[in-house]
Specification:
The structure holds two protein chains of two kinds.
Chain A: E1 2-3, H1 7-21, H2 24-46, H3 59-90, H4 94-97, H5 103-129, H6 142-166, H7 170-186, H8 199-205, H9 209-222, H10 229-253
Helix pairs in contact in A: 1-5, 2-3, 2-5, 3-5, 3-6, 3-7, 3-9, 5-6, 5-10, 6-9, 6-10, 9-10
Chain B: E1 2-13, E2 16-27, E3 31-35, H1 42-50, E4 57-62, E5 65-66, H2 71-76, E6 78-81, H3 93-103, E7 106-107, H4 110-119, H5 135-147, E8 153-157, H6 165-180, E9 184-188, H7 192-198, E10 201-206, E11 209-215, H8 216-222, E12 226-232, E13 243-247, E14 250-255, H9 258-270, E15 275-282, H10 285-294
Parallel strand pairs in B: 3-9, 3-10, 6-8, 8-9
Antiparallel strand pairs in B: 1-2, 1-4, 4-5, 10-11, 12-14, 12-15, 13-14
The chains are: A mainly alpha, B alpha/beta.
Chain lengths: ~260, ~300
Amino acid sequence: MSRHVGHGWTTLLYKELLRFWKVSFQTVAAPILSALMYLLIFAHVLEGRVSVYDGRVSYTAFLVPGLVMMALLQNAFANSSSSLIQSKITGNLIFVLLPPLSALDLFAAYVLGAVVRGLVVGLGVFVVTLVFDPSLIHMPHPLWAVAFAFSGSVILGTMGLIAGIWADKFDQLAAFQNFVIMPLTFLSGVFYSIHSLPPFWQAMSHLNPFFYMIDGFRYGFFGVSDVPPLTSFPIVVAFCIILSAAALLMLSRGWKLRQ
Amino acid sequence: MIAVEVTDVARRFGNVRALDGVDLAVAEGEFFGLLGPNGAGKTTLISILAGLTRADRGSARILGFDVINDYRNARRNLGVVPQELVFDPFFTVRETLEMQSGYFGLRRNGAWIDEILHHLDLTGKANANMRSLSGGMKRRVLVGQALVHKPPVIVLDEPTAGVDVELRQSLWGFIRKLNRDGHTIILTTHYLEEAEALCGRIAMLKAGRVVALDTTQNLLAQFAGLTVRLVAQRVPAAWAARVVRREGSLFYIGLDGYAELESLLAALREDGIAIDEFALAETDLEQVFLRIMRAPEGVPA
């Protein structure tokens, strides 16, 4: 038996990964299937009717990164939030509250667990959609795509952590998901370029942090975006820092976790 | 060395004073009992030791480490068996123990985990999912989780609730062995005969205050005497204050000694009360507990 600094939080991370991997049919396969459904329906109905980036990109190709990012964000949120609420309601959260884990340990484990789930699902959606448009593999700026995918999943993993700490019941968590996460995702330009919106809604979209994540991610695929990535990335990182600071403060105060 | 030190700890939940200025010191190697009725503050006190609840006032230390300012060292030295029967349905028994070991930063802990499984009679269930275990087995896994980092101080919050007699015996055998090996044990239980048999020293809590704190022997000696178990329609008016407990027509009456027995019998005869059943017993911890809890100011003078 030997004690290792850092083994505590990596064990919690491993637990978080094992938790979703043991039910991967539900946590990975199901969201990939639903993203595929969106692609089949929207691409079939709207291909040729919607012009994006002045016709430089086909609608189906445009839709793919949006769906990849949507699946990634939703699943990152789902992982940390559902893990926490389940542990709180069943009472087994006590197992991570009794050991000498710091606020940063808990934050790192829950958020990285969410990041991995988000990236796995996002990658899964991407691989499946390649069947429809193999040319998507030729990304002009793959590193931008990775940077936005990673920071986006950190943001949603952190939001899931905050929502999981805040919620006392499953329906409160569902409300957070339906009234905060869903509108922000659907109104972020997953299905459309915001340039096709009236000026007022274009301006509103610029207030939605999710818009910058999806727009920047798309830049990696096409080299074209509504906002330059050098503008959107700092906004995403700033949002990430604010949320992380809030989550760390909640954890170190023991808010809702330690009475 | 003091294993657990609690100084002037108070905690309120809304209008309820769960703890109202508690002082306790438990020496290393002790087998210490924490008794009290439901709502007396036992679990709140344990939660404060474990860092699950924060005190409004006062401080708590595990082997000298403050549970807030030096929580890492405090928690490394403390193992807690929670009262609620909680488990993670995603994992097997062995995974549960390995995970708990990992949270404490421990690697290559397999040998000790095997030993825990053996002592708790769980070896055959090591690879069974937690969901498939009976209540008693889940309780034993909770004990195992508390021991996985070999803590010098072990707190058990009603560990035998819902555990059958045979298992309770083997569990106590294991806890006794840990105590002999030098572990400090703090126990709360509703089974007072268990506390009497196991604990060297006992604190009794009532409404968030310590109302009795002494060795088990002294507590028993303090109330040396007899208890009469009487089944009758009523008791003589002069003896009403001596009734320790009543269950319908069954009265428990405390006596100071055999000399009083005669006056009790005389009073019964005088009042023409028919005795349906009559038995005598030495005072046990349960009687002591009931007398202390009934006394308005804690320990009667």
